[in-house]
Amino acid sequence: MEVNIQDMWSQNNYIQYILSGKKAYHTPGHSWLMKAGEAFFVKKGACVIEKFFDEPLCIMTFFIPDSYLQSFMRENTLLKSASPLTKPKNELLIPLRVNNIMTAYFDSLIPYFYSETKPSEDLLELKFRELLLNVLDNPENIDLKNYLLHLLSPQHDPFQQVMEANCLYNLSLPDYAKMLNLSLSSFKRHFISVHKTTPGHWLQEQKLNHAYKLLVSTGKPITDISFESGFENSTHFSHLFKKRFGLSPLKYRKQNEVSPIS
Fold first, then answer.
1. Same topology for domains 3-150 and 157-262, yes or no?
2. Domain 3-150 maps to which CATH number in 2.60.120.280, 3.50.30.70, 3.30.1360.170, 1.10.10.10?
3. Domain ranges of the chain
């Protein structure tokens, strides 16, 4: 079976519905395999995408910025919960329960892709609001509803969430700034005010600390550890690791191997 694996990031959230085929999403510590007939909400950020080509892959995607979701939740007061919010998990993907109503909704959109005339913006937004209402009206999609309500809470810190969720990817500083809808200079100023260090130094430390944990707790090859920790290549990783810990990754692993008890 032919498989394509690539890094990917988006500055907007999106909802995807798989019409045919399958694909997998991978983040540090979590993986999701999505198949035909399934839908999911993906938060803005980075991940590793795995596409399988044993059958045609056809996907319907709806991109949604945080600002639109916040506005939508403020306008639809009936969606607000009387019970206290639970803090959402800081995971990239929220699977959605697809019922007959949602399946019929997705089917109703297909003719728009083959229409000779472009639908009006007002009609497209109306259809999109219908999608959100259909999803959130289903009690089984409480995880998404809870996350969207959290976007309105004073505790919501998009800056911290984006940085912590995406620090192990090989992203540039302009990429992080775009995800946070900030200019590069504003991003750097805000980062330094929060972390008291530069973004580059903080990101390097997060990656090296993650690589260290993998090195001493798993038997994964150095090249895999380098990739999973967001480094450009294993040579660059080895250089930075030796500078930080005094030994190359391979020598550090051998020196710190635990001897079996006799």
1. no
2. 2.60.120.280
3. 3-150, 157-262
Cα–Cα distances in angstroms (integers) from residue 24 to residues 5, 95, 121, in the given order: 9, 12, 32
Residues of the chain scoring pLDDT < 50: 258-262
pLDDT at 189: 95
Q: Which residue reads 């399988």 in tokens?
A: 52
pLDDT tens per residue across span 68-104: 999 999 998 877 765 556 777 778 999 999 999 999 9
32 within 8 A of 93, measured Cβ to Cβ:
yes
**What residues contact 172, with CB distance under 8 A and at least 6 apart?**
none
The C-alpha atoms of residue 106 and residue 174 are separated, in whole angstroms, by 35
**Which amino acid would we find at residue 152?**
L
Residue 34, beta-bridge partner list = 23
Q: Which fold has domain 157-262?
A: Arc Repressor Mutant, subunit A (1.10.10)
> In sequence order, which ranges of the chain are alpha helices (DSSP H)?
66-75, 100-114, 121-137, 142-150, 158-166, 173-179, 184-195, 199-217, 222-228, 234-245, 249-255
Q: Residue 94's closest CA among 53, 151, 54, 21?
A: 151
CA nearest 13: which of 42, 53, 39? 42
CB-count burial class (<10 Å; 0-12, 13-18, 19+) for 67: exposed
**Chain centroid to CA 144: how far?**
14
| Angle (CA) 96 59 181, round 5° | 75
Q: What is the pLDDT of residues 17-50, one digit of tens each?
A: 999 999 999 998 789 999 999 999 999 999 999 9
Structure tokens that stand for 240 in this block: 């930075």
Between the alpha carbon of residue 225 and those of residues 26, 38, 151, the distances in Å are: 15, 31, 33
